[in-house]
Amino acid sequence: MISLRSILALSLGLPIIAVRATQYSLVKQYAGAHFFDGWDFYGNYDNLTNGDAIFVTASQAASQRLAFVNSAGNAIMKVDNKTNVVFNDKRNTVRISSKDRFAVGSVWIADMLHVPYGCSVWPAFWSQALDWPTGGEIDTFEAVNMESNSQISLHTVPGCTVVNAVQTSTLVNTTDCSFLANQNSGCAVGNPDPNSYGAAFAATGGGVFVTEFAETGISLRLTRPPTSVWFFSRGNVPNSLQGNASSVDTSSLGKPVANYPTGGCNVDRFFQPQKLIFDITLCGDFAGNPQTFAQTCSGFCYQDYVIGSPSNYDNAYFEVRSVRIFGTSPSVDITPGSSGASQDATSVLWLGLTGLSATLLFLLAL
Ligand SMILES: *[C@@H]1O[C@H](CO)[C@@H](O)[C@H](O)[C@H]1NC(C)=O
Ligand SMILES: *[C@@H]1O[C@H](CO)[C@@H](O)[C@H](O)[C@H]1NC(C)=O
Ligand SMILES: *[C@@H]1O[C@H](CO)[C@@H](O)[C@H](O)[C@H]1NC(C)=O
Ligand SMILES: *[C@@H]1O[C@H](CO)[C@@H](O)[C@H](O)[C@H]1NC(C)=O
C-alpha cells in the first residue's frame, strides 16, 4: 500500500526508507530454546525499587528453575514458590535486561500467555536507557497485586508531557512524564482491557503487547504521532501479528491504548536506545505502598505474603512465547551490548540520516 508519506517522498525525490515510519522489518527475535541467550540477569537483591526480592543470577535461575524454557518452547520467569522464607529474608525472583539496546525507530512485540499476579507481586515488561532518567523509560506492561488492569507509562527528565494523545484509554492518571512529578509515577495510563492483567489475562490465552518507539517529527503533520502502546487480548490479535510475520505496519493496528505525541515530548530529546527488561519484584515502592496495597489486598505485604508459605506465588510467573524486535531498516537499529563498535557506528550513522530526513520532511510538512 502506498501511503501519503510515500507519495510525498516520491514526488520530492526523498529516500523512501526514511519516511516509512509505520513500516518495520524484523531485526531480532527472542524465542524458543535460546530465549535467554540475549539477556543479563541482575544478580543482586532489589536495590532499585526496595522490593523484598532477590533477583537471582543466571546460574541460580537455571538451577532453581526460576528462568527456563518449558516443553512448549515458551520462556518462564517466576518467583520462587517452593521455599518457606523466614522473617527478615527476601524471596528469590528474576530480573533480566536485554544485552542489546534498541533505538528510536524500533517496535517491540511481546507475545505472552501468562503474566505474574497475586498479592505483593509487582511485574513489569519495560525498557530503559543506560542513563536513567536522562535516557528515558517506557513501561509497556506494569501492574501490582490483584488489580484488574495493567498500566502503561513513560518516565523522563522534566519537560516531557502528554499533549493531544490519540488513544483508546480514558484512564489517564498523570500527563507529566518527569520523574520528579507525582512521586515518579510517570505519565501513566490505565490499560482499560480487563484481560490485560491477572487471572483474566491467563484465562483468555494471554495477548500481545506492541510498543512503537517512533521517529521524531515525521508524523507530526502526516499521520499518527510517535511512541504508542497497543494491547491485543488473544481473541483480538490481528492477523498481521499472528505467525512469524517478518514485517509490521503499525498504521494498520488501529488506535493505540496509549500514545505519547511529539507535540508534548520530543522523543530524540528525552529518549536514548532502550534495553528491554522483564522483572518481578515483591512489595517495594509500588506494590508495597500501604495505600496501593490496601486497594486490592488485605493484611501486610511482607509479613503476610513474602515470608512463610510459598503457595501465594503459584501464579507469579511470566510465560512468554516471543519478543520480536522490528526496525525501520533490518539490523541497523540495534546497539549491541558488548564488542559491537562497528555496529554502534552504523546505528549512529543510520540515526543521523534518519534524523536529517525527518527534519527535511518536517520542514516540508509545515
Ligand atoms: C545495586 O547493587 C549492585 C550490585 O552491588 C550495584 O552495582 C548497583 O550500583 C546498586 N544500585 C543501586 C541503585 O544502589
Ligand atoms: C492510576 O490510577 C489507578 C486508579 O486510581 C490506580 O489504581 C493506579 O495505581 C494509578 N497508577 C499510578 C502509577 O499512579
Ligand atoms: C516462528 O519462529 C520461531 C523461531 O524461529 C519458530 O520456533 C516457530 O516455529 C515459528 N512459528 C511459525 C508459526 O512459523
Ligand atoms: C509453583 O508454581 C508452578 C506454576 O504455577 C506450579 O506448577 C507448581 O505446582 C507450584 N508449586 C511448587 C511447589 O512448585
TrEMBL record:
<dbReference type="InterPro" id="IPR050546">
    <property type="entry name" value="Glycosyl_Hydrlase_16"/>
</dbReference>
<dbReference type="Pfam" id="PF26113">
    <property type="entry name" value="GH16_XgeA"/>
</dbReference>
<keyword id="KW-0378">Hydrolase</keyword>
<dbReference type="InterPro" id="IPR013320">
    <property type="entry name" value="ConA-like_dom_sf"/>
</dbReference>
<protein>
    <submittedName>
        <fullName>Glycoside hydrolase family 16 protein</fullName>
    </submittedName>
</protein>
<feature type="signal peptide">
    <location>
        <begin position="1"/>
        <end position="21"/>
    </location>
</feature>
<dbReference type="GO" id="GO:0009251">
    <property type="term" value="P:glucan catabolic process"/>
</dbReference>
<dbReference type="GO" id="GO:0016787">
    <property type="term" value="F:hydrolase activity"/>
</dbReference>
<keyword id="KW-0732">Signal</keyword>
